[in-house]
Amino acid sequence: MEVELSETLNSLKPTENQRIIDLVEMAGVDVSDWANFNGKEPATNPKYCYEWSFVSEQTATLVCCIWHDMLQVTEGKIQAVFNVLKTALTQNAQQKKRAHKFHNDLHRAKDNNWTIRAVILSEKFSRNGTSKVDKRVLDESPWFVDSYDPYTNEWKLTRGKGKHQTKFVDQFSEEGPASRKEVNGIAFKRDGKQRLEVLERAQGICEFCGQPGFQLPSGALYLETHHIIPLSEDGPDVASNMIALCPNHHREAHYGIKARHMRVRMQEIIAKSLVKAIVAP
Ligand SMILES: [Zn+2]
Ligand SMILES: [Zn+2]
Known about the structure:
2 domains
């Protein structure tokens, strides 16, 4: 298990230099304000692009920039342990501000059980010994705040889903919008256990596009469960024939011109995620 985990840890090392604005958007954080930059390239807006953390209250998500070097395998988990306030001590005024924002964001994430998304960074050293970001990747797995030590100010983030993390609900859940009737008129009986398994698998993130669902007043994250081969076509009512979708992709899967194409793509996505689930604990 430790060996497998250190392989996973190695595989998290970024191999591409993706733009931070794209990764933050992929994690479901609204980046429209980056464009308020005197007509200049939004991706280079200094108000955002050098930040260490990005918040979306709407989707209960905190995006954290984490150096790959800081990741470690401990207690059978992949973790990042760091002290951002201590790091701040050695930084210039601007970076200090960013570090304190990161620290405060982590507190908000911890207090509200937000999902953490990790942007993993690798660094490049220049001749004068300073380092800068070389490559970045958005980890596809969610993370959570495992613990915070108020005496040392040390944060421990763990890869995977947290015990007390956000509840996930769909259109048939008690607090979902339609504990009413099936949308297309004919009511098929659905296996609630299978739906919940799908929602757990998705972790609040649309399995088709990778964007988080929106947050309900209860704090739960909302996605819609969908049968890839419909029950009306004798598709089985099992998790492997189901996918959790954002409302937009759910409607598209039913009514869009690309519905047929999406069906094939969704089957591929789920087949891949099931293989992963067998490999990873
Ligand atoms: Zn989607
Ligand atoms: Zn559907």
